[in-house]
Write a structure and sequence with these properties.
globular, alpha/beta, 13% strand, Rossmann fold, 13 strands, hydrolase activity, binds magnesium ion, Helicase_ATP-bd, DEAD/DEAH_RhlB, ATP-binding, binds adenosine-5'-diphosphate
Amino acid sequence: MSSFADLGLDPKVLSAIAAAGYEKPTPIQAGAIPPALAGRDVLGIAQTGTGKTAGFVLPMITLLGRGRARARMPRSLVLAPTRELAAQVAENFDIYARNTRLTKALLIGGVSFKEQDALIDKGVDVLIATPGRLLDHFERGKLLLTGVQIMVVDEADRMLDMGFIPDIERIFQLTPFTRQTLFFSATMAPEIERITNTFLSAPEKIEVARAATTGENITQGVVLYTASRKDRQAKEKRALLRSLIDREGASCTNAIIFCNRKTEVDIVAKSLCKHGYNAAPIHGDLDQSQRMRTLDSFREGKLQFLCASDVAARGLDVPSVSHVFNYDVPSHAEDYVHRIGRTGRAGRKGKALMICVPHDQKWLADIEKLIGNEIPRLESPLTGAPQSEKGPKSVRTDEARMPPRKREEKRDSAPRTDPPQEKRSRAPRREAPVVGMGDHVPAFLLRSFRTAAGETAE
Ligand code: ADP
Ligand code: MG
């Protein structure tokens, strides 16, 4: 099935998506919409950027087309893990429901509630909320969930990461068991599996293969980089990031720069600004209005570089990002897929570039194992020569073959034995650098490096 018109959607919905410029449904949409319209439960498994939102909002609008909202009893409920994601669903709803008279309210923390309260009092068709905020409202008696006919759980794996599963279970129990449930997740962790087994009834399962979503339209590359001195790493790494950005020239219209830690997100954003780049940070410690402002200006093209942590960025829909820079190698391989999924969306071309210091090479190996591909090694724009002597093949196979504990030991020893940078670029070695000192490293040295490594690891 390759056209929206074949899916059974309301003509009003069809004209709204035509106006939005969508030509044909994405695989998750083609898979989820028909069973959803037939009233079945749906379990959709697909990465970010695959069009899940329309996958549940379009059938929802069609199904709610008949019938009217009742005071304090929303007819449908969409749960999203973060305020930004909930706000994004609300924006999408406005686009897809523009030709209907359906109403919505948005219940998220950090913004004023008077208006939303009034809407709910009057009666809304769709309530979009974060779990905590919803329960808050419910407990204050402002809301009845017994009228919910359709319940959507979006980004369930993110809910799990954020500890929302008990809230989700509670909300499931507050809604009628005859409700229809549409449940979406990028992965199926055991805990998610358990929830779906408990609360979904004979769901239609739609799984979109990972290969299709990591996207052939994303060009990837990694610079293996070793600092000239350990204490200069942070500074040099920031200079390397700038030259990577500069090397992309005008093709880099906007980019997300990912760091593993919130403090790093702040430092990198500040440093970029200092050097004349148009950059701002986004992470969980910033207040809601600031996050929204930053995100809006990035969406509107006023902000060119968004420095982000994984938590802040997961699932966010930022259209047409030309580049993703991984300032740090993510320590969870899954996050790499999420991060680079921010570019090359909906068929556009994108580029994902990463910096990898020796300490992070173990994570690089994990990522390559997960994606089943080698990420091409790039020359460092700083030296004009590849910065590591490690042949890409040997990194991967050596590390991948070793049992986990062995690999751990190898990681710890890597920074100690790296030769100074200048030497390395003049006479690149073919072997992995972890041979060298071996057991002869003095105990005090081992200790200090352990601490350094520990600090780097999130
Ligand atoms: P997900 O929730 O899976 O991360 P989104 O629903 O946020 O994905 O959609 C990602 C982007 O793709 C959005 O910008 C959306 O407008 C766009 N999009 C969704 N469906 C289509 C489609 N059928 N054709 C073109 N673009 C689409
Ligand atoms: Mg989404």
